[in-house]
Amino acid sequence: MGTGEAAKEYVAGFAAGLAMVITGHPFDTIKVKLQAHNTTTNQKVYKNALHCASRILIDEGIRGLYRGASSSFIGMSIESSVFFGTYSLMKSFFQGTNVDGQPQLQVILPSAGCSGALISGILCPTELVKVRGIFRGGVATLMREAIGNSVFFGSYEFSRYWMHLHMDSIPGIEKNRILNDIGIGIVSGGFSGIAFWTAVMPIDVAKTIIQTAPDMNSSRNPFQVISLVYRKSGLRGCYAGLGPTLARAFPANAAAIVTWEYTAKLLDIRRE
């Protein structure tokens, strides 16, 4: 992949990040509040995601749902640019000249892992603008991104390939190619976002607790924190905020994937 082609990949990723923040930031705000307040005490502050959202709207209005959005626009756009751009570059590197369109785990997993590890250095400080501290929870963020992005891109590549493979066999499909591509992007992107968070939610809960802990000397080991949460709140505590997170994951990631794919087409990026 040449320099010009690589630059286009980063631009496409930047556009995807903007789409993701616009679509998903309110859900993320609710998730953080649920994780921060419903796992550290025996008494729940919020009954559920709807109760949390209504409290925010009553106390702060619509602006409360977009609290920290300015930093998220910057952070998510840069993250997404690095995320998608690095993944595409690493995928091209590991794939080499063997391009037949069929997803390969030996290409997807190292590419996604490298991309996730790299963006964790961006995500940790930008996410902490909404909570507190700098680089607290860095290990948990690294784990979440490396593991989660491997699941994300694996789910995306295989579901996208499968849907294209079966839809291309339908007679007359070319008449609605644009709509079909958008539909595939929505389903593959939304499904992959759900797979990401389902896989790494306990790590994300640990990250939020580490970053919001009032005691600066409290444990920063994500495994210890997950164990503590499990003993105190059970499996439900380990998946605190899962509802709004999954509600956000589908539309936000669907928007990101569709934007990424179509920006790539507008920039004439060559893909299999």
From TrEMBL:
Q: Membrane topology per the record? A: Multi-pass membrane protein
Q: Which GO terms describe its molecular function?
A: L-ornithine transmembrane transporter activity
- Which InterPro entries did the record assign? MCP_dom_sf (IPR023395), MCP_transmembrane (IPR018108), Mitochondrial_Carrier (IPR050567)
User: Keywords of this protein's UniProt record, alphabetized?
Assistant: Membrane, Mitochondrion, Mitochondrion inner membrane, Repeat, Transmembrane, Transmembrane helix, Transport
Q: Where in the cell is it found?
A: Mitochondrion inner membrane
The record's Gene Ontology biological-process terms are: mitochondrial L-ornithine transmembrane transport
Q: Where are the Solcar repeats?
A: 4-93, 180-266
Q: Which domain of life is it from?
A: Eukaryota
Q: What is this protein called?
A: Mitochondrial arginine transporter BAC1 isoform X1
**Species for this entry:** Carex littledalei
